[in-house]
Amino acid sequence: MGFHGGGWFSILSAPSDRPRLTWATLKRVLQYAQPYRWKIIAMLVMILASTGLGLLSPLLLRHLIDQVIPNGHLDQLVLLGLGLLLIPVFNGGIGVVQRWLNSQVGEGVIYDLRVGLYARLQRMSLRFFTHTRVGELMSRLNNDVVGAQNAISNTIVGLITNIIQAALVLSVMLGLEWRLTLVSVLILPLFLLAARRMGVRLREIARQAMDANAQMNAMMNETLNIGGALLVKLFGRSRQEVERFDARAAFVRDIGVRRAVLGSSFFVIIGLVSAIGTALVYGLGGYMVIQKDFTIGTIVAFGSYLGILYGALSGLANAPVEFASSVVSFERVFEVIDLPAEIEDAPGAVELKETRGQLVFERVTFRYDLESLKLLSEVERHGQMDRVTAVFSGGSESKPREVSADLKNGENSLPVTGEEAPHSQAREVALENISFRVEPGQLVALVGPSGAGKTTLTYLIPRLYDPTEGRILLDGYDLRQVTLESLTAQVGMVTQETHLFHDTIRTNLLYARLDASQSELEAACRAANIHDFIVDLPDGYDTVVGERGYRLSGGEKQRLALARVILKNPRILVLDEATSHLDSESEALIQDALKRVMAGRTSIVIAHRLSTILAADLILVIDRGQIVEGGTHHELLTLGGVYAGLYSTQFKSQMGAPSG
User: Fold this and answer.
1) Is residue 527 part of a domain?
2) 509-522, pLDDT tens digit by residue?
3) Helix (H, G, I), strand (E, B) or coil at 629
4) Which of 325, 448, 538, 567 is 20 to 30 A from 246 via CA?
């Protein structure tokens, strides 16, 4: 329900297909001003003092014109001249203090919003990030937060200032001449009409500008990170990407021009309305001076007050326009804050302390249910010209399809249309009725065709996803009933695609344990067969690895990832033992490191090496999201089933290769 009962809120009324400003939204916005209420109160005191001083100048002019100059009072002339000089000096000082307080409030609100947004995003599930562009999130953390801050630090403060000024000036004007005051306020409906008409249009353009910036930011993020830049160069698409960016930047430019022109037109209209009022007042006032109803000094003072009054009314008329634009930003910020977290601690969740490492899957089924996932792109944004659902194609109608964890690791598990291969892994359910037990210290090898669901299974262990049905137990505790922080501390994971921050080797390693000493870092790196390589670098452990670690080879990044897990010292190890893209020397070093890492730990390994499979206590063969076979190497070979086929086509050729 929108605001009713008149006032400047009423001019925010919009057609029914557009969102309205509600009391609930306004109260929520004002909550962000609550921590700064004393500074805001101090600002109000400054505003009162500044307004009061501003009201003195016209009265001094009136006295100067009507009394001092005609009567030749030189001493009063000097005093009045000094007063007219000191008033702006004091007002300037008050303005500096007020600006300091205002910036404290404004920057504080930006800080609160950004930290709140970032904290909320950190709680979102992995599935949220696979369906949301980083550029869109950056736009909300930067552009929308600044726009929302403007509502509190500028618009609301300006509104209060203008209300105080208008009220005080009107009271003084009524004391001077009530008839002229009445004429002055007769044009108020024109102010409201202008603001109503322009406010809706400016709000719409503000929303379009934010969406256009989000589109442009998303494209920059996709093409200027190291992976995107490499892809553009490899396919020779630099010219096309410049042209595509040119089109999006031009759209942002054009909206900016429209917004500036419309805003300028608004002030021109307000100026014309003010000119009508001024002409009426001076015309009637001049007639009254001629009729000797009041003095020239009075009409001069009245004219000065008229300028202050119309300035305040212009601000009041423009306040809902500015506030409407800011509310658009708040809506986009609240949209993120209100997203439900898919993975959260249950009430009374248990904190894991001493973990043995027994892992049990009980009839676990998991499907990627996109319909139940709340995404930013699904939220209705009124007035939006083009939803940012695709960075390059620009399609606004296509819905994102759920991408399984296996696809992100090079395994195609998306449903396909048309005729399928006999052993296609396309299916609706990613994992179905998975049950197995791993005792503490055991090694379980996961094998199966590409896209069978191996990676998805491993992602359930650290609760990157929760099972749709069934449960996973760690030392008898359902993973949903233990705290995420304590679970994460017990699980170490090395994915096929190693991610390193654009920072030093030391910082990337310390991410596993912030208080680790240099000797502990070196011990972990020796265990991962990477220490000798690091010390040979010019800056040693202080070498910057580059964006996503692109300055290092695949084998070096994987060994750094292993060292990071060793430093964490988890009780359960989950890893993708992908070595197909490594040279034989790197592969041998990694295999040697893996033996040390897995020693004494419960290990779940997506196995690509025969040596790992032969060493496994249990081999699970996964096909189309189900465990179709389980046992040791010799038991599975005897069955002559899926494993025997994989052994013949993938693993048998490694018999003569060095296993590390």
Assistant:
1) no
2) 998 888 889 999 99
3) strand
4) 325
